[in-house]
Write a structure and sequence with these properties.
This protein is of the alpha/beta class. The protein is 28% helix and 18% strand. The protein folds into five domains: 147 residues, Rossmann fold; 204 residues, FAD/NAD(P)-binding domain, CATH 3.50.50.60; 156 residues, 3-Layer(bba) Sandwich (FAD/NAD(P)-binding domain), CATH 3.50.50.60; 53 residues, Alpha-Beta Plaits; 160 residues, Rossmann fold (3-Layer(aba) Sandwich). The chain has 20 helices and 30 strands. A hairpin with a 5-residue loop joins β17 and β18.
Amino acid sequence: MDKKYGVYICTGCGIGDALDIERLSKLPQKEYNVEICKTHGFCCGPEGVDLIKKDIEGEGVNAIIVAGCSPRVNQDVFDFGSDKIVERVNLREQVVWCHDLAPVEAGEDAEASEAESALKEGVNLHTQFIAEDYLRMGIVKAQKSELPEPYLLETVSKKILVMGGGISGLTAAIEAANTGYEVTLVEKESSLGGYAAKLRKQIPMSNPFTDLQAPIIQEKIKAVESHPKIEIKTNTVVARIAGEPGDFTVTLKAPGETIEFDVPQLVTQTHDEEGKELTKEQTDELYNELNKGRADILTFDPNGEKFGAVILATGWKPYDASEFENLGFGKYQNVITNVMMEELAANGRITRPSDGKEAKSVVFIQNPNGDDDSDFPFASSVTSLVALKQAKYVREDSSDAKAYVIYQHMRTPGLYENFYKSMQQDDGIFLTKGKVSSITEEGDGSLAVEVDDNLLGEKIRINVDMAVLATGMVPTTKDDAIVNLAYRQGPGFRDIGQFDGYADSNFICFPYETQRTGIYAAGCVRQTLTMADCVEDATGAALKAIQCVESVNRGVAVHPRSGDLTYPDFFFQRCTQCKRCTEECPFGALDDDEKGTPKPNPARCRRCGTCMGACPERIINFADYSIDMIGSMIKAIEGPTEDDYDPVPLRVIVLVGENDAYPAIDMAGMNRLKYSPYVRFIPVRCLGSVNTVWIKDALSSGLDGILLLGCQFGDDYQCHFVKGSELCDRRMENVAETLKSLALEPERVELKQVSITDYDKIPEIINKFVEAIDEVGPNPFKGF
């Protein structure tokens, strides 16, 4: 597009008082030949917006640079239509609100030179320089941006596939169908209901949350069976899902049926011949060798059904309790799991498996008697609530029956505390914190249970008819592909070492989303939930599926960059088929052909730019976010040299993840927290998008250091793009090589993790890094 630039500098919120606005407003014309540069005391007000609109209409301005408040606010105010480029320059939160405004005394600082004499009286030179650098970067960013064109599929299916006929799947199907969308519900069993259909009673779902209630599952089944928008397919599983959101091709089959697909061969080898664990690079090499020349592994099934989005509600499976022989499971018939107990209760009065005798005394064991106080694997608050529920079963069967609940943790969140209290009031239910040290069987099949470390402060012995182990609920996606994707990265969700098989892609920010765009998790496949929570969860997943198909229909991203029109553009003429982009994409958006050339699926893309950061040839870019753009913004920063100053002041850039780090920096400014004036922030979509060429160019041009601020990864994983920050951390090895080739110190580049609430730590992080750079000394390339 032919661009006509207009720069608009806001002087409100203290900006005009802190800066030399007259000098700042001359910069666009002087350095970039931008003729239109205007100031206003309230750019986000009606008069300020009208000022910009008049230039759009009268002067043909279509590339607008607004210098004022953070781009995180007033986004709707400065939206002038999809045919305009708008860039925001953050002068408020990241300049005047976070730096000293007092003028530097003559002789007090090296930068207090003749440059200061050109400033308006009372203006701090450091603050002015920061504002000028940010304005330069904003203009350059507008110069390098292009208007995005939406990626539109030829045809978009708005039909929604729901996998799983339990409480979550049924609810999701009903909610989606009630909004007018066609739904196909597939269930592997011959009947609907899942585990919910096997309950005697369920945990309370409504006030006063004190009593058990009849299961609601039959109501859900009837609603689904009578809904005109829902097609039900029992005895059916998903054989394969190919394609992308809006255009999924799904092959269905009967359980146990064999359909021949040429699918990618997965690497099962984990160690080399010497027993050393394989690296990711070695695993990828094995994968590529196994699938070499197999261009048809991702072909579509011409007989498959078309869907726009998928809701994964396949639920959970019981944990295998065979490892708990120390508690008598597998050795004594009357030691059972909570799932087995539910089956007994649903069949009538609770009886012992050994002889059919009525169980009038039952102990419920909540932890496996380990060296610590951990519960059974995959246990949760639901496990605690189920123990209380089943204890109530025992009491309902006989007024003189006794139930004992031995726990290390009793979790009854929210209003379920009322349920817990009502169980406490039952004279026949005994609850105590403790560890079960042993279980032995008596001659009549009854059990003697020894309990240590209980609230009474002494060992106790309980003689009971039966013991129930509170084993947890394992998501069906653990160790099982379930969705059977025809994706380059395998048929299931990649193990990112955080969720132990659960299908979420981010446990904090984006519920329902999985690592695969267009596939949304609901219920116990996402996290362990009560039936009430499953109903709510499934409603949310249905809404996300609807959002997905409607977003794809408009050619925009679904999440987390909701509404983003951009997608990665590949300059294939220079592609070397290295496969790094296909391997590192967190969302499986890229397939490849037999040569290794990437095959984009833009509707799968989350627009994080990880592929851009991975590409050594730098051939992947977005319309408004590119290698050249960020590189040019870095070069736009004015680096003082020894010709002007002695000693030379530092210049440090901070590449800032837009999701957590950038808002944290904004909040630091809002709280008037001060930090070094030598830093310049450049927002990036994700640290995974950081290409090492930016670091090389920055250092070779004389900048003194580069700090990368991104989301938390590791044990406290919070990355919005699954592994972006972690991938960037791995690439630091390449950065080290770059520094070595430039004969520069490794201390000049550092990566720090911050969450959105760490705004109070921002000054310390920045100041410590600047101090470390100061000790290393100025970049020897400065001035070249």
